[in-house]
Amino acid sequence: MDTKQRILDEALTLFSEKGYANVFVADIAERVGIKAPSLYKHYKNKQAIFDAIILEMNRRFLEEAGNLQINGANAAEDAEIYKHISEEQLITLGNNLFLYFIHDDYTRRFRKMLTIEQFHDKKLAATYMKQYVDDPLSYQGMLFGLMVSSGILQTENVEIMTLHFYAPIYMLLTMCDREPKREEEALKTMEAHIRQFNKLYARGETSIQGNRKQSRRSTK
Amino acid sequence: MDTKQRILDEALTLFSEKGYANVFVADIAERVGIKAPSLYKHYKNKQAIFDAIILEMNRRFLEEAGNLQINGANAAEDAEIYKHISEEQLITLGNNLFLYFIHDDYTRRFRKMLTIEQFHDKKLAATYMKQYVDDPLSYQGMLFGLMVSSGILQTENVEIMTLHFYAPIYMLLTMCDREPKREEEALKTMEAHIRQFNKLYARGETSIQGNRKQSRRSTK
DNA sequence: GTCTATAAGAAGATAGAC
DNA sequence: GTCTATCTTCTTATAGAC
After folding, report:
1. Any idea which fold B70-220 has?
2. Which tens digits make up the pLDDT trace of B144-202?
3. Which of A19, A79, B53, B168 has a CB 3.0–4.6 Å from the CB of A167, allowing a cystine?
């Protein structure tokens, strides 16, 4: 990776841990392995580094626009899957979404930086909302719409159903950002959440496989 | 209000808007109506102001321990109400909780400050989690437990049911902290969320009043 | 492109008069 | 308790050699 890119990378790490104001140009330079003045050959000033991070992030987000990386595939391809999804697959869907959000290094650092800096700039707050609230709700809402059409889920209000699916995931996500040690707890809660979600919304004759199953798992 | 207290109040306002590092001692002093050096007669240094805010907040939180101000009453008194709650009252419960969180000035400023500073100090992250995630879930879980006992709600897992009730509220809360202009939208979503929550969990013969009502509201 | 040396300015904190 | 003046330190950013 070239120096110009490494500066962005190290700066993002530091900004996400301490916030813009608490990171000194010399700190960034040190992690890159150069002295502070050298850094000014690559970027006009400290603010320009921050701006470049935001710009690159927007580029990445656009790159995967509409695609929340649920399966690494796009919506059209996903659609077929979701018409015949099972409870276990629904859990996998939630887990993958969740694990992507907390483990993808760039995403995680960027989200933490936005969390710290959001009140300095309304655009950053709006970016956070779009990326971690509005877009996931919109994308998943579409998928759940397909599941309702095909009869595997039942509801009069897909939007609220989607909220009921995603809001707990969002809450567990912010929990893990704050207290990474609670990740295991979060994953257990996730699974229980999705199983109950499935019971609540897949009550019809065409209920999702695994629903109302009374037999326990066979012993190992 | 005496000067010592006003310093805390103005500092909290500024910290919640800009974050600790971006607020200068002179800014705080100016809002209090004194010069920066005078401020050092009240607090040893800038950090001591921050610490005093945290201390006072912990005092306030303890003062209302276990009581999320849902009705300004305590849990024991609330319990009787929740055994016979109607759908409209459930909506009021959610709305009051939500409106208290976003409109109570001290609570709102303090939560925003915690949001900004949480990654500088693990204790702050833990405080946020306890106050806005764990405690609400625990308190409401107890209330919902009562409602399940009295038969007005049905579930095999009260904890997840509580998560399904609270997580959307939490999500809308963080939305309004970021984009106050979306409050009206948030309140509408809140109501739709709670009505659907009620439909999902109050299906038994003893379903909550208002459930399955098909008649529309009379015209005004 | 990287370095050393240094300018320029900001911000926290103190001294001492009133 | 509040002020003005000032000190000290830290941080950004530039100058200019290599």
Report:
1. Tetracycline Repressor; domain 2 (1.10.357)
2. 999 999 899 999 999 999 999 999 999 999 999 999 999 999 999 999 999 999 999 98
3. B168
DSSP B208: P
Bases of chain D within 7 A of a CB of the protein = 1-5, 10-16
Domain B1-67 has CATH 3.50.50.60: no
Distance CA A95, CA A195 (A): 12
The answer, as to whether pTM is greater than 0.85, is yes
Question: Cα dihedral sign for B126, A109, A64, A181?
Answer: negative
Taking CB atoms and an 8 Å cutoff, what residues of chain A touch B214? none
Domain map (residue ranges) of chain A: 1-67, 70-220
Of B112, B168, B192, the CB nearest to A119: B112
* Residues in chain B within 8 Å Cβ distance of A22: 21, 120
Q: How many CA atoms lie within 13 A of B135 on its CB side?
A: 18
How do residues A115-172 score in pLDDT, each as one tens digit? 999 988 999 999 999 999 999 999 899 989 999 998 999 999 999 999 999 999 999 9
